[in-house]
Protein backbone atom coordinates (compact mmCIF):
# COMPACT_ATOMS: atom_id res chain seq x y z
CA UNK A 1 0.00 0.00 0.00
CA UNK A 2 1.42 3.35 -1.05
CA UNK A 3 1.43 6.06 1.58
CA UNK A 4 2.54 9.67 1.31
CA UNK A 5 2.51 11.54 4.60
CA UNK A 6 3.12 15.28 4.72
CA UNK A 7 4.27 17.19 7.76
CA UNK A 8 5.67 20.58 8.67
CA UNK A 9 2.72 22.82 7.96
CA UNK A 10 1.55 25.46 10.38
CA UNK A 11 0.99 29.15 11.01
CA UNK A 12 3.75 31.60 10.17
CA UNK A 13 4.00 35.35 9.74
CA UNK A 14 4.61 36.90 6.36
CA UNK A 15 8.30 36.83 5.55
CA UNK A 16 8.85 33.69 7.57
CA UNK A 17 9.87 30.20 6.54
CA UNK A 18 8.54 26.67 6.77
CA UNK A 19 9.90 23.35 5.64
CA UNK A 20 7.44 20.72 4.48
CA UNK A 21 8.36 17.05 4.46
CA UNK A 22 6.72 14.12 2.73
CA UNK A 23 7.56 10.57 3.77
CA UNK A 24 6.80 7.90 1.20
CA UNK A 25 6.31 4.16 1.67
CA UNK A 26 5.03 1.25 -0.38
CA UNK A 27 6.64 2.35 -3.65
CA UNK A 28 10.05 2.32 -5.28
CA UNK A 29 10.62 5.93 -4.36
CA UNK A 30 13.75 6.47 -6.44
CA UNK A 31 11.79 5.73 -9.60
CA UNK A 32 9.18 8.42 -9.06
CA UNK A 33 9.14 12.10 -9.77
CA UNK A 34 7.66 13.98 -6.83
CA UNK A 35 5.60 17.11 -6.74
CA UNK A 36 4.20 19.58 -4.26
CA UNK A 37 0.75 20.97 -5.02
CA UNK A 38 -1.40 23.44 -3.17
CA UNK A 39 -5.09 24.15 -3.04
CA UNK A 40 -7.28 26.86 -1.59
CA UNK A 41 -11.04 26.53 -1.17
CA UNK A 42 -12.92 27.06 -4.41
CA UNK A 43 -9.85 26.71 -6.62
CA UNK A 44 -8.19 23.86 -8.45
CA UNK A 45 -5.15 22.18 -7.03
CA UNK A 46 -2.04 23.68 -8.63
CA UNK A 47 1.51 22.44 -9.02
CA UNK A 48 3.99 24.42 -6.95
CA UNK A 49 7.21 22.50 -7.52
CA UNK A 50 8.41 19.15 -8.79
CA UNK A 51 11.60 17.14 -8.91
CA UNK A 52 12.62 14.26 -11.12
CA UNK A 53 13.59 10.81 -9.86
CA UNK A 54 17.27 11.64 -9.42
CA UNK A 55 16.91 15.18 -8.18
CA UNK A 56 18.76 16.56 -11.18
CA UNK A 57 15.78 18.44 -12.61
CA UNK A 58 13.25 20.65 -10.93
CA UNK A 59 10.26 22.77 -11.86
CA UNK A 60 8.79 25.76 -10.03
CA UNK A 61 5.64 27.72 -10.57
CA UNK A 62 6.39 31.37 -11.35
CA UNK A 63 4.70 32.46 -8.14
CA UNK A 64 7.27 30.65 -5.97
CA UNK A 65 10.49 30.89 -8.01
CA UNK A 66 13.35 32.19 -5.91
CA UNK A 67 11.46 31.58 -2.65
CA UNK A 68 10.75 27.83 -2.56
CA UNK A 69 13.20 24.96 -2.99
CA UNK A 70 12.26 21.34 -3.58
CA UNK A 71 14.67 18.54 -2.71
CA UNK A 72 14.61 14.82 -2.15
CA UNK A 73 16.47 12.12 -0.28
CA UNK A 74 16.03 8.79 -2.03
CA UNK A 75 17.77 6.95 0.79
CA UNK A 76 15.09 8.19 3.17
CA UNK A 77 12.21 8.04 0.65
CA UNK A 78 11.43 11.66 1.40
CA UNK A 79 10.81 14.89 -0.45
CA UNK A 80 11.00 18.36 1.03
CA UNK A 81 9.77 21.85 0.24
CA UNK A 82 11.70 24.69 1.81
CA UNK A 83 9.50 27.78 1.74
CA UNK A 84 11.09 31.15 2.44
CA UNK A 85 9.79 34.71 2.28
CA UNK A 86 6.28 33.42 2.70
CA UNK A 87 3.37 35.61 1.66
CA UNK A 88 -0.28 35.52 2.72
CA UNK A 89 -1.16 34.30 -0.78
CA UNK A 90 0.87 31.14 -0.09
CA UNK A 91 -1.82 30.10 2.38
CA UNK A 92 -3.22 26.76 1.23
CA UNK A 93 -3.33 23.06 1.88
CA UNK A 94 -0.13 21.58 0.50
CA UNK A 95 -0.06 18.07 -0.94
CA UNK A 96 2.78 15.89 -2.07
CA UNK A 97 2.28 13.55 -4.99
CA UNK A 98 4.18 10.79 -6.80
CA UNK A 99 4.56 10.39 -10.56
CA UNK A 100 5.72 6.99 -11.89
CA UNK A 101 7.14 8.54 -15.07
CA UNK A 102 10.07 9.84 -13.03
CA UNK A 103 10.08 13.01 -15.09
CA UNK A 104 9.04 16.55 -14.18
CA UNK A 105 7.52 17.00 -17.65
CA UNK A 106 4.96 14.17 -17.69
CA UNK A 107 2.86 15.26 -14.71
CA UNK A 108 1.11 11.91 -14.38
CA UNK A 109 0.75 11.92 -10.62
CA UNK A 110 -1.14 8.91 -9.31
CA UNK A 111 -0.45 8.89 -5.58
CA UNK A 112 -1.34 11.69 -3.21
CA UNK A 113 -0.86 12.54 0.42
CA UNK A 114 -3.55 13.81 2.74
CA UNK A 115 -2.25 17.38 2.79
CA UNK A 116 -0.90 19.78 5.39
CA UNK A 117 -2.23 23.26 6.08
CA UNK A 118 0.04 26.27 5.64
CA UNK A 119 -1.29 29.58 6.87
CA UNK A 120 0.66 32.81 6.39
CA UNK A 121 -0.55 35.78 8.39
CA UNK A 122 0.00 39.37 7.28
Task: Note down, in words, how this protein is organized.
It is built from no helices and 11 strands. The chain has strands at 3-7, 10-13, 18-25, 33-39, 46-51, 58-60, 68-73, 78-83, 92-99, 111-112, 116-121. Strand 5 (46-51) and strand 6 (58-60) form a beta hairpin.
List the helices and strands and how they pair.
Blueprint (H helix, E strand, L loop, with lengths): L2 E5 L2 E4 L4 E8 L7 E7 L6 E6 L6 E3 L7 E6 L4 E6 L8 E8 L11 E2 L3 E6 L1
Parallel strand pairs: 2-11
Antiparallel strand pairs: 1-3, 3-8, 4-5, 4-9, 5-6, 7-8, 9-10, 9-11
Brief digest:
With 122 residues, the protein is mostly beta strands. The chain contains no helices and 11 strands.
Shape: globular
Order of helices and strands: EEEEEEEEEEE
Number of helices: 0
Radius of gyration: 13 Å
Average pLDDT taken over every residue = 97
Topology, number of strands: 11
Task: Report strand %.
Answer: over 45%
Note the gap between the termini.
Answer: 40 Å
- What are the segments in which pLDDT stays under 50 over at least 5 consecutive residues? none
* Helical fraction: under 10%
Instruction: Assign the structural class, choosing from mainly alpha, mainly beta, alpha/beta, alpha+beta, or little secondary structure.
Output: mainly beta
| Biggest pleated sheet | 7 strands, mixed
Amino acid sequence: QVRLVESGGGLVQAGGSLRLSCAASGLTFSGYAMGWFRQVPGKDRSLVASINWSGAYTYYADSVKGRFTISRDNARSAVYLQMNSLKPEDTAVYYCAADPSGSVSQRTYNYWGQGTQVTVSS
